[in-house]
Design a protein that fits this description.
Layout: H1 3-12, H2 22-25, E1 26-36, E2 48-49, E3 54-55, E4 63-64, E5 67-68, E6 70-76, H3 77-80, E7 94-99, E8 116-121, E9 128-129, E10 145-155, H4 159-162, H5 170-180, H6 186-189, E11 194-196, H7 208-215, H8 226-230, E12 236-243, E13 257-263, H9 264-268, E14 276-280
Antiparallel strand pairs: 1-10, 1-11, 2-6, 2-10, 3-9, 4-5, 6-7, 7-8, 11-12, 12-13, 13-14
Length: 282
């Protein structure tokens, strides 16, 4: 679904008046269509979700308090670049994503820092497929998936946060929520949603303020530092969203999702070690 299709969906939903706000609501995203493939079905260096990573010599597997972290995904950015219509990601390089094997890192507490790792390298010669550490629990390892990519437009679930001088009627809010409930179509809405960039499929509250506060050492909104920090909440954007995927043994809480967030300035500067992770589930 491209932007013209989104406009048509707004008109069909009785939302013609608020088309003026469409640019605030839409964000381009890269859909990650995962297909279980096993270790021998994915070329070394290719993008993947689950399985084990392909890493350069000297790589150190991330851990948390002595326990190896779960390998979540690797993204070969050269493959992704043709689908990055916003030009937000580096044109080349590799990203590796790891997360707390015990799934006890939720992102609401500043002490959660270290419960995930995002590693970037633009030097990816000599990659080798690396077995998981022997002490990584079997239940914290996932079957490998190859990835197909697609560019798509995503809609915000929080229009009041996105739109300056929000002036929608209650009826328009209701119609928008109805549109979101099946967007872009009922079958896709019910499918898995792994993605890079774009608007997240939020299960609970908007995460940007949580990322801003926790990443600056603030846990409580009543902390005297919170009002000033709140001004920077909207600088955060989604980097990666990984859905629960029972086909490969990935389940986040009660069939939830994990979200990696990054500020626009850190993304532009390729500071992927400055991300913040949030886990949400029902």
């Amino acid at each position: 679904m491209d932007k013209d299709d989104v406009k048509a969906a707004f008109v069909a939903s009785g939302l013609s008046r608020v088309l003026k706000d469409l640019d605030f609501l839409t964000k381009p995203s890269i859909r990650l269509n995962a297909t279980p493939a096993g270790e021998f079905g994915i070329s070394i260096g290719a993008s993947r979700i689950g399985g084990v990573p392909d890493v350069p010599p000297g790589f150190t597997w991330p851990d948390l308090k002595g326990v190896p972290q779960s390998f979540i995904a690797q993204i070969y950015l050269d493959e992704v670049h043709p689908y990055d219509t916003s030009g937000a990601l580096p044109q080349s390089g590799m990203l590796w994503f790891f997360y707390d094997a015990k799934q006890e890192t939720y992102g609401a507490d500043p002490a959660d820092l270290g419960g995930w790792r995002v590693i970037f390298s633009d030097n990816y010669s000599g990659l080798q497929r690396t077995a998981a550490p022997a002490n990584l629990p079997a239940g914290s390892q996932f079957k490998g998936c190859s990835i197909g990519f697609a560019s798509e437009i995503t809609l915000s679930q929080q229009p009041k946060l996105e739109i300056p001088h929000f002036d929608w009627t209650d009826d328009e809010v209701h119609k928008y929520e109805t549109l979101l409930s099946t967007f872009p179509n009922p079958d896709d809405h019910a499918a898995l949603h792994h993605r890079l960039l774009g608007n997240p499929e939020t299960i609970q509250d908007d995460m940007r303020l949580e990322c801003q506060l926790a990443s600056h050492g603030v846990k409580d909104i009543n902390d005297p530092r919170a009002p000033e920090l709140t001004k920077g909440a909207m600088d955060w954007q989604l980097l990666l969203q990984i859905d629960s995927d029972d086909r490969i043994g990935m389940r986040w809480g009660d069939a939830g999702m994990i979200y990696l967030w990054i500020t626009r300035s850190d993304l532009q500067a390729k500071r992927f070690d400055h991300t913040w992770l949030v886990l949400q589930s029902d």
